[in-house]
């Protein structure tokens, strides 16, 4: 069996021309097929509807139509079982979700025909259609109301051991059930839909840890909206550091692409990703000797630096071993272009010698502006970025020994950062960005687009 693309994820750079503008960190488009699966699982497969229909008792049915038109009464009529329930969904633009449940109800009771009493079984086909509308949005929650609940009865089959009922009883039973079942079934559907709403809101409003660095608090940002093709959901993603401080991120309007054959499209905005990267990439300064144990090109770097030291420098270290300190400068910034993601990051490289008396001589203070190529994947419900060195721009901040030309150092510094800093960055990013479990739809067959 060929599996459909179940889930699509799209990065946004905020440059799209939106048809449905939103200002949150994330946006989702859920197809009618996905909503049907979600509601079918929640209402039918989990037994929620059957559970709330248990114990359903119907009013007594009285009439004429038994043997020789004897008075007929059916009492104690109650629901025994719900057979073969099926659920379908239609998205109504600007209104909400139209839910249709078709099932066969098995009813049982006592039938008195004249003076003869016996058990009666009734099988009735029902078709319940309800329009579900979201309203009263407040602090990430919405209420759902059911409008225009319609219950239509289909075929009725009556089973009586004696077979003494005439055909006219069918009409009596149908008329009575048509008058009473909608008033009993629609309130049950209303209860079930509200319980499912609470359950599904729990998938949208969640606080998810990001390793040990902090959390992302996902929350519904506004009322859901419907088109004929999808249910739209906008989510806020509050990025919090350990200790509670929030990393702010701007929101820019954008539009979701067409669903095509996907069940779900999730759009992540550049500003939101930048906030999460700032949370993940918090690497303390790294100090280490310029030796081959620290990185393979140490001797080449030391030789290149030594040749740059002006002649006659009395304070210069000569052949003394050098030390290196790497420190991140500012926050990382992800740039999104079509089919390409780049992380820009600045690093301060300090090359120094520490004397016996503890004084430090800075041979070089460099600033490296890195453009890192980002590979994107999904693992365990998390978005994982893997970085590789793209380009390096090197500039001289200062030198205590008068070095002024650093052009020959660029390849050596690139190798230094590739061997020492990149593994730390990828280790920090390996935790991944936890994604919201939107309506419990599994992240399978992911199609990533930038």
Automatic annotation (TrEMBL):
GO molecular function, a single term: lipid binding
Q: Where is the Lipid-binding serum glycoprotein C-terminal domain?
A: 258-450
User: Which PANTHER family does the record cross-reference, listed alphabetically?
Assistant: BPI FOLD-CONTAINING FAMILY B MEMBER 4 (PTHR46019:SF4), BPI FOLD-CONTAINING FAMILY B MEMBER 4-RELATED (PTHR46019)
Report the Pfam families cross-referenced here: LBP_BPI_CETP, LBP_BPI_CETP_C
Answer whether the UniProt record assigns the keyword Cell membrane to this protein: no
- Is Signal given among the entry's keywords? yes
What name goes with this protein? BPIB4 protein
InterPro entries named among the record's database cross-references:
Bactericidal_perm-incr_a/b_dom (IPR017943), BPI_fold-BPI/LBP (IPR051660), Lipid-bd_serum_glycop_C (IPR001124), Lipid-bd_serum_glycop_N (IPR017942)
């Amino acid at each position: 069996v060929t599996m459909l693309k179940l889930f699509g994820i799209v990065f946004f750079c905020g440059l799209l021309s939106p048809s449905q503008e939103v200002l949150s960190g994330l946006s989702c488009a859920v197809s009618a097929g996905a909503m049907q699966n979600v509601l079918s699982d929640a209402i039918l497969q989990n037994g929620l509807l059957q559970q709330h229909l248990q114990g359903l008792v119907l009013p007594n049915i009285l009439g004429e139509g038994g043997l020789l038109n004897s008075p007929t009464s059916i009492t104690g009529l109650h629901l025994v079982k719900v057979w073969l329930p099926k659920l379908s969904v239609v998205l109504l633009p600007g209104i909400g979700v139209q839910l249709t449940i078709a099932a066969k109800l098995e009813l049982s009771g006592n039938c008195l025909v004249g003076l003869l009493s016996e058990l009666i079984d009734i099988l009735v086909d029902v078709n319940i259609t309800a329009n579900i509308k979201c309203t009263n949005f407040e602090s990430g929650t919405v209420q759902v109301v059911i409008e225009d609940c319609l219950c239509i009865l289909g075929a009725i089959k009556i089973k009586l051991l004696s077979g003494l009922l005439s055909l006219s009883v069918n009409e009596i039973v149908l008329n009575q059930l048509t008058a009473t079942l909608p008033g009993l079934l629609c309130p049950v559907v209303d209860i079930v839909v509200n319980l499912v709403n609470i359950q599904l809101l729990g998938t949208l409003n969640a606080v998810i840890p990001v390793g040990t660095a902090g959390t992302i608090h996902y929350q519904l940002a506004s009322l859901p909206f419907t088109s004929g093709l999808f249910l739209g959901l906008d989510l806020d993603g509050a990025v919090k550091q350990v200790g509670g401080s929030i990393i702010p991120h701007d929101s820019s309007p954008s539009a979701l692409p067409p669903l095509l054959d996907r069940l779900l499209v999730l759009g992540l905005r550049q500003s939101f990703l930048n906030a999460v990267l700032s949370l993940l990439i918090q690497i303390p300064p790294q100090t280490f000797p310029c030796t081959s144990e620290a990185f393979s090109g140490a001797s080449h770097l030391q030789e290149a630096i030594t040749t740059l030291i002006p002649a006659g420098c009395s304070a210069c270290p000569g052949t003394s071993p050098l030390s290196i300190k790497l420190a991140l400068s500012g926050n990382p910034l992800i740039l999104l272009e079509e089919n390409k993601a780049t992380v820009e990051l600045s690093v301060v490289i300090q090359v120094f010698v520490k004397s016996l008396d503890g004084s430090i001589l800075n041979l070089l203070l460099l600033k490296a502006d890195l453009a890192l190529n980002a590979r994107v994947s999904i693992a365990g419900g998390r978005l994982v970025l893997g970085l590789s060195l793209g380009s390096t721009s090197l500039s001289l901040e200062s030198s205590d020994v008068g070095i002024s030309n650093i052009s020959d150092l660029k390849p050596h510094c690139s190798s230094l950062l590739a061997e020492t800093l990149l593994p730390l960055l990828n280790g920090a990013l390996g935790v991944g960005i936890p994604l919201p479990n939107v309506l419990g739809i599994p992240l399978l067959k992911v199609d990533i687009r930038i």
